Amino acid sequence: MSDQRLGANFINRQSFIELDARERAAALFDAGTSRELVGPFDRMESPWLEQQGVTPQGDDGCVVMKGKIAGQAAVVIALEGAFQGGSLGEVSGAKIAAALDLASGDNVKGISTSAVLLLETGGVRLQEANLGEAAIAEIMASILVLRRHAPVICLTAGTVGCFGGMSLAAGLCSYVVMTREARLGMNGPEVIEQESGVDEFDSKDHALIWAIDGGEQRYATGLADALVDDDTPQIATVIRGLVLKGAPPVYRSSQVALHRGRIATLDTSRQWDPRELRVLWTTKGSTEEKQ
Amino acid sequence: MTEHKSVRGTVWFRALTGQASSMPGDPKSVLTADAPIGKEQARFLCVVPDPNARFPCARHGEIGLEEGYTLASRVREVMQPDKNRTKTRRPIVAIVDAKSQAYGRREETAAIFLACAAAIDAYGSARLAGHPVIALIVGQAISGVPLTHGYQANRILAFDDDGVVIHAMHKAAAARITRRSLGELEQLAKKIAPMSYDIRDYAKLGLLYKLLHVENPEEPSEQDIRYVQDELVEAIADARRGSVDLRNRLESKGALEMRKASLLVRSRLEAQWLEN
Fold first, then answer.
1. What's the structural domain count of chain A?
2. How far apart are CA B146 and CA B135, in angstroms?
3. Is A8 within the bounds of a domain?
4. Pairing, β A152-156 against β A113-118
5. Within a domain: A246
6. What's the rounded Cα separation, in Å, for the pair A217 and A213?
7. What is the SS3 assignment for B273?
8. pLDDT for A7
9. Is B273 close to A37, i.e. CB distance below 8 A?
10. What is the 3-state composition of chain A as percent helix, strand, coil, each rounded to the nearest 5?
């Protein structure tokens, strides 16, 4: 009986991962409240790609939508993992920073406005290298301002995951939400293998990658605030809950003594089974968001 | 890529603070000191190589877990006592010469992304609290390095010298990932300013406050040191005159030319944001 119900749920489940960036963003708003800003018809393309033989895209792989979540003003910014790996270029980076700054401006005016970042990205777009990196730095600066006023929520659902400089931006967010399919880490497995050797990290070992970077592990070690299924209504409910929750009492990236202390006690003479950290770093104060 | 000895960070840290040591309890890879600059005291920070570092992938001057959290705590320490002071906030100077973040399995497992975020949070929060934060790039600042230790500064200064490289990724890795040969990458980098590894091209992007012409960056003379000190004093004063955000990087002459798309995106988004 319960097996049948489980099967029915699974079949009826509305996958979030299968949605593209535009559909993902729209799915999080209260019905009928959202509109896209600087959409594909504005044709704000990257000025750097064509001269390198790469076809640009009208939205530069970044969707910005404004509307209401749980009745409050919100902006959702979604990276399209299918365009250049969700990488941050000059235009997509400027869109994100500008949207966050406009949200901060509204908060100052008394219009409470939160932000949701849907991050599916490998980090800086190397074809725009330094301008992509500079944009990420500006996004970080903008997150630090906005999160004082309203929640800045990072959702990484997969399957690209959130890597490179944008993983650092995720670290600054008020809340981090992940699915089991998602990954969050600074250096991708291929990069580590290339820089430090296959003994350090075998990039073909998928079980190891998810054991380290996967949503379940990040949640179990207190590095994510909620672990969600690949289910659109459930994800939207969790996001609504976090919007209503407001700013956390303390940001994860500001808890320096706690994390520094944890690093100090690790035995660095060997590699660890990632599950060891689940025991050492007990999750505090984030179980209530678990769905 | 040429072998990077990463001595410049130590050399300039000593030149500007009179010492080159870490604070009690800190890893040897993070130098922190309070030293006079102009008529006030500033906090100086730098990441340098420690061949005996606890983490094996962070022994060549990389920014790793310990470095990120140490920078964060030493920056926050300056913010604390200044908190209640109504007067001037103490300047913070990040001396930058590091080739990359630490690429290791231990680092990923123990969430290096958060260690770097902690440093970014600290530098950015210090800036927002009114501390003039100045980045002085004396050598390499590649990949996660400038993000973690430099880019949250109000003003960025860099030496006009071939030993200075600011980039999103070192050449070999960038070529591999974009599926190009090193030669092709170098050709493209000549044409496309944001891809260039040349500090003079970088300066055109409008992100730097100033390019400093130091005669001998490896072994600075008294004159070189005085010149850099004067420029730091000037950058601190300019930071105090300006806003606590990073808008100067979009308002610079270079940005008006090279970041036209960024500026257009911002103005369009603002216009459409207001429509209802």
1. 1
2. 9
3. no
4. parallel
5. yes
6. 7
7. helix
8. 54
9. yes
10. 45, 15, 40
The CATH number for A170's domain is 3.90.226.10
Say how far apart CA B92 and CA A184 lie, in whole Å: 31
Contact A182/B at CB under 8 A:
no
Helix (H, G, I), strand (E, B) or coil at B18: coil
Distance CA B163, CA B272 (A): 44
Residues of B in contact with A140 (CB under 8 A): 120, 124, 147, 151-152
What is the extent of the structural domain holding A217? Answer: 13-289
For residues B229 and B17, the answer to whether their CB atoms sit within 8 Å is no
CA distance B226 to B243: 27
Q: Which two structure tokens, joined as six digits, stand for B239? A: 């930071």
What is the distance between the alpha carbons of residues A32 and B220, in angstroms, rounded to a whole number? 64
Residues of chain A with C-beta less than 8 angstroms from the C-beta of B206? none
First to last CA, chain A: 22
Query: In chain B, what is the straight-line distance between the N-terminal and C-terminal CA atoms, in Å?
Result: 53
Distance CA B26, CA B73 (A): 10
Verify whether the Cβ–Cβ distance A187 to B107 is below 8 Å.
Answer: yes
| Domain membership flag for residue A148 | yes
Note whether A126 contacts B: Cβ–Cβ < 8 A: yes
Please check whether residue A5 lies inside any domain of the structure.
no
Encode pLDDT of B208-263 as tens digits: 999 999 999 999 999 999 999 999 999 999 999 999 999 999 999 999 999 999 99
Average the pLDDT over B136-152 and give the result: 98
Is A223 in contact with A184 (CB distance < 8 Å)?
A: yes
In terms of Cα–Cα distance, which of A120, A221, A252, A239 is closest to A177?
A239
For B244, the closest chain A residue by CA position comes to A141
Are the beta carbons of B97 and B140 closer than 8 angstroms?
yes
Whole-angstrom distance, CA of residue A95 vs CA of residue A21:
14
pLDDT at B82: 64
Q: How far apart are CA B256 and CA B242, in angstroms?
A: 18
Contact B73 A257 (CB under 8 A): yes
Report CA torsion sign: A288, A248, A284, A155.
Answer: positive
The mean pLDDT value of chain B amounts to 94
- The b-or-e profile of A35-59 (16+ CB within 10 A means b, else e) is ebbbbeebebbbbbbeebeeebbeb
Total Cβ atoms within 10 A of residue B186: 15
Taking the C-alpha atoms of residue B242 and residue B220, their distance in angstroms, rounded to an integer, is 30
Tokens of A194: 């290339």
Alpha-carbon distances, residue B230 vs A275, B39, B223, B226, B236 (angstroms): 52, 11, 11, 6, 10
Neighbours of B204 (CB within 10 A): 17
Euclidean distance between CA atoms A41 and B68, whole angstroms: 42
What is the DSSP-derived secondary structure letter of residue A126? G
Instruction: Tell me the CATH number of domain B8-245, given options 3.90.226.10, 3.30.1360.120, 3.30.200.20, 1.10.560.10.
Output: 3.90.226.10
Strand boundaries in chain B, DSSP class E: 30-37, 40-47, 92-98, 133-142, 155-159, 165-167, 210-212
**Predicted local distance difference test score (pLDDT) of residue B175:** 87
Domain ranges of chain B: 8-245, 247-276
